[in-house]
């Protein structure tokens, strides 16, 4: 297998970006064809906004902290969307507090991203 020069964390983020984007489009289509569904609309909104962010992080992440933020964002988005999908089609949650844990992970990831930018800006190299 050829070395792409991309570490495993960045490859995971890139794969999750693609899956998250695809899930967002499918959820938007399902929501438009099945009528009013808060769960499907939320899945579409979260996935279509976080998929591009994951893509950017996968392509740009050069530091451990950006990679950590991206992986946490990917995990939180996946957990949140999976819980809402399970509620939509199976009528129950993945496990208690799954959606809030996923949402909390997404929030922490965004704060970590902001913190990383502030800290990197204080260093002479400015490198993330």
Helix/strand layout:
Blueprint: H1 8-34, H2 38-60, H3 64-90, H4 98-122
Q: Roughly what percent helix?
A: over 70%
Shape estimate? elongated
The computed structural class is: mainly alpha
The total strand number stands at 0
Determine the strand fraction and express it as a percent band. under 5%
Termini, distance in Å? 28 Å
Query: H/E series, N to C?
Result: HHHH
> What is the CA-atom radius of gyration, in angstroms?
16 Å
The stretches of 5 or more residues where confidence is low (pLDDT under 50) are none
Q: Counting H and I runs of at least 4 residues, what is the number of helices?
A: 4
- Please tell me the total number of domains: 1
* Biggest beta-sheet profile: none
* Average predicted local confidence, pLDDT: 90
Explain the overall architecture:
The chain has about 130 residues and is an all-alpha fold. It has one domain. α1 packs antiparallel against α2 and α2 packs antiparallel against α3. The longest helix is centred in the N-terminal third of the chain and has 27 residues. It is elongated.
């Amino acid at each position: 297998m050829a070395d792409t020069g991309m570490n495993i964390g960045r490859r995971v983020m890139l794969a999750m970006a693609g899956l998250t984007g695809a899930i967002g489009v499918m959820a938007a289509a399902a929501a438009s064809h099945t009528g009013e569904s808060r769960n499907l609309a939320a899945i579409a909104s979260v996935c279509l906004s976080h998929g591009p962010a994951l893509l950017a992080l996968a392509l740009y992440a050069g530091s451990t902290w950006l990679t950590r933020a991206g992986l946490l964002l990917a995990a939180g988005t996946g957990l949140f969307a999976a819980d809402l999908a399970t509620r939509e089609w199976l009528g129950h949650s993945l496990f208690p507090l799954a959606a809030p844990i996923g949402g909390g992970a997404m929030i922490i990831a965004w704060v970590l991203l902001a913190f990383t930018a502030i800290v990197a800006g204080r260093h002479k190299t400015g490198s993330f």
